[in-house]
# Entry
Amino acid sequence: MTTPTTEGSSTTGASRVLVLNSGSSSLKYQLLDMSDRSRLAVGLVERIGEETSRLVHTPLVGGGAEPRERTGPIADHEAALKAAADELAADGLGLDSPELAAIGHRVVHGGLRFTEPVVIDDEVLDEIERLVPVAPLHNPANIVGIRTAQALRPDLPQVAVFDTAFHTTMPEHAARYAIDVETADAHRIRRYGFHGTSHAHVSRKAAELLGRTPEEVNVIVLHLGNGASASAVAGGRCVETSMGLTPLEGLVMGTRSGDIDPAVTFHLRRVAGMSTDEIDELLNKRSGLVGLCGDNDMREIRRRIDEGDERAALAFNIYVHRLKKYIGAYSAVLGRVDAVVFTAGVGENSAPVREAAIAGLEELGLVVDADLNAVRSGAPRLISPDYARVAVAVVPTDEELEIAVQAFALVGQVHN
# Structure
């Protein structure tokens, strides 16, 4: 996938992009000015549809101001977006501004068809809807957000940026599961991968950190948040990633199991009498770190370990063991690795996770400098010593900026 730039992207003079991330009961938004890639405002509406709905809006223009908070029932996503629009308007950043060039939407699943961002029309929406069976928790909420934004600004380009797009460069031998081909094709069963906007952004920034172009480097990216995924990126193209048909496969996560013998599901059905929905809830919401020790906050887990909690220590060790397996596997896939990069909430902030994941991998050229690793910073940085054969880095992710960059570039192409 070609990396978009913002040079000459708009012929209308409009330079702002509103980025929307619609969840099942939440709406995250950011307004960015692409002339200098600055944030003008950020906000979150949560618990949509409940009596205890909450909106937190933070204006950032002109040096920023204190967050404003509203509580009370917000019935649906339409009401949530209207409330967000009211907050933006109060700061002189309303959705009716002629400076707004596009609205960029995070869409989790784009299947095989969407390998690039697209301007949304009825055909695109229909295809996103057809993908609901492989993304039942995410695509419906994304669709609601799109339709709501279209109703508010029908004249404005709406751009879908897909979590799966970056991973569509995987070769067939990496993307295919070893099951009957006809069955797989009939039901779209294959490995799609997720967190693609993060992996694209971070792998590109890692190349910049090394003073090289993305085409020159091979990078292993470890996106470690409550959801977690790994990718092997060769010359700017994803060749392998840990998540599969759904975001359940791969690394140990906050509440998801990651890799598991598929027969566990049959066993639970036959022996425990669990329904499909109960097994789904177990593996997605009651597994991972929370299933192992009752906590999915790495800070709390580390605190418990320091107090001698054995369950927390076991959960941490399982988490790190899975990370090591993927680092080793992706080193083999790539053949030559120039950098291993940590990102997202845990990856950017947990020095113990980074240290433990790299420990013992000296034969792969991987070493962490304890002092560099202990530094807390919001900037991309190396945490490996100068003599290390493979760089180890921390690169903050910025999925909203990546969505805005891709949406703005596409709008410019359409106008041109």
Observations:
- The two ends are 20 Å apart (CA to CA).
- The first strand starts at residue 16 and ends at 22.
- The chain has a mean pLDDT of 92.
- The longest helix spans residues 310-334.
